[in-house]
Design brief:
mainly beta
Length: 64
């Protein structure tokens, strides 16, 4: 997939959770239960390599 947001474990680059849109401009809340990774260094990765009609991604209100 070339258009998504992921939670990535820093130590090995493993994408632990991943979400993408559904070709709609309406925002929808996405939640991940990352409690298994407490104490693990992670980061949010936003990937936008799409070139099609809905070739963009919107992200807002990120909470940890």
């Amino acid at each position: 997939n070339n258009l998504y947001v992921a939670l990535v474990r820093k130590s090995d680059g493993q994408e632990l959770f991943k979400a993408t849109g559904d070709n709609n401009e309406a925002y929808k809340r996405v939640t991940w239960d990352a409690s298994a990774y407490i104490g693990t260094e992670c980061y949010i990765k936003v990937v936008d390599k799409s070139t099609g009609g809905f070739g963009h991604i919107n992200i807002d209100d990120v909470n940890v």
